Amino acid sequence: MTRALVLNATFEPLSIVPSRRALMLLLDEKAELIHSTERHFRAARVAFPEPSVVRLARYVRVPYQSRVALNRRAVFARDGHRCQYCGAAAENIDHVVPRSRGGTHTWDNVVAACRRCNTRKEDRLVHEVGLTLRRAPAQPRERVWFLVATGGLRPDWEPYLGSASLSASA
Ligand SMILES: [Zn+2]
Asked: Which of 1, 13, 32, 36 is 20 to 30 A from 135 (CA-CA)?
């Protein structure tokens, strides 16, 4: 499935959506086409270029807290798909302070973990089971970093990702 980069009216990258969804934004006149791929969507007698980059017609204000949604995929991307206790391939999301002990479901309390560490820890605290965190979890500062880290970067997105894409690949 091809994905498209959605830019705010200010050209700031906002999100990545399926190209079909981006086409809907264009047809609803909620966005303008900036770049398309070589392919087309065909319907009846008309063909639409498959969008790669679209820009919203109206500015969307992004509340700081919702800038990077906290979900399994995003946490795995932040943590490089590695268990933050032992470095093995991550399979689970672990709450550093377990929810049963008052831990919150927030960026600074959630890490990627392998099944073994996750099971070993259960409802206990890190020091109680002799585990050590490789680094303190934190909310990703750069929304753009997140867009790049989740993969599938298209070359025609790069001008809009700016310096952040350079730092993300370093
Ligand atoms: Zn582990």
From this structure: 13
